[in-house]
Amino acid sequence: MLHCERLQRSKIRQLSMLRANSFNVSGKVSILGRLRRPCHGRESSMSTTIRAAVLGDEALLVVLNGFVHELHVANRPEYFKPTRAEHVSAWFRSILQKSAGLIWIAEEDGVPVGYVLALLHEREENPFRSARRWCEIDQIAVDDKWRRRGIARMLVQRALTEIRRHGIREVEMSSWSFNEAAHHAFRRLGFAPQIIRFGLTLPE
Ligand SMILES: CC(C)(COP(=O)(O)OP(=O)(O)OC[C@H]1O[C@@H](n2cnc3c(N)ncnc32)[C@H](O)[C@@H]1OP(=O)(O)O)[C@@H](O)C(=O)NCCC(=O)NCCS
Fold first, then answer.
1. Pocket test for ligand 1, best of 143, 148, 184 (most atoms within 8 A of CB)
2. What are the boundaries of each domain within the chain?
């Protein structure tokens, strides 16, 4: 495990420092598990903790969000823009203040390595559609050094448990067409495609 930790990127060191400064550890749910795959040739045990994010976690979430946002900026630069930490932090703060926004953070031996953000939605009936309550898993990301070890699965399972507690049964996730890794993961997590959005950019 120490061997793996030495290989963590500077982001993770940054996260650890942020955690030491600002983490509120209330509401932790601890899940003990085994690494499914060897870590750099070594099989080792690990302790994955999934906990609800709280006010004060904004700085951690800014860093974790980078694991998905940078992918989006790299692949769809005409749509996504580079972020400023203070803006993203304020955005997460506003989500944490809303009861319709739910965020969980995954930690490995106390180091934040992933998060999931779920938004609860409600829509009234209209002439075409029935009234509806549903949940959108709006953001999910795992540090690339910690992928394929079941962390997204644990995050999603934690989110689904809470979503069900709200009496909601319909859950959606959407993903850009370039992101085939996410599509594979979503399918393995039990989600199936429901809609295909076509796009066209007109020449200037
Ligand atoms: C998508 C993402 C969150 C998955 O996280 P993860 O922790 O690696 O996922 P898990 O290890 O929990 O895997 C869950 C399931 O998906 C499968 N899976 C995960 N990544 C996969 C990949 N790249 N290719 C194929 N299958 C994959 C796993 O095998 C597992 O299925 P199994 O348990 O039946 O074997 C992670 O790749 C990520 O952060 N990507 C960048 C951000 C992103 O794209 N977010 C989604 C934006 S819409």
1. 148
2. 2-188
